[in-house]
Design a protein that fits this description.
Elements (H helix, E strand, L loop, with lengths): L3 H10 L1 H50 L1 H33 L1 H11 L1
Helix pairs in contact: 3-4
Length: 111
Amino acid sequence: MITKESLTALLEEHEQELKASILKQLEVQIIQDVQWTLKGEIASIVKEWITSEIGPEIRAALVESKPAVLAAVAQSATRIGEAMADALVADVTKNLSENYKRSAILKALIG
């Protein structure tokens, strides 16, 4: 069992090592804190610079290419609509052909 006296003696015996270890840990923690703070500050500065310097140029380029973007959107919408219609037709055809009664009705209707 550890007594108060034995613990005190152990601490006194290793006092210098303990102090050195504590100081080393404090140093590591301070360095990590500074690095974390710097990362935040740098990110803030970069964000501000991008917003003020690059943002307007990106906006101008987007405005300039707006007709091409809109044409691509319209073309994509048409393709998506066609693909959806094709998929629906394929699903309906599959569902009809999978069921014998529906297949018979389809044959009777279509011939």
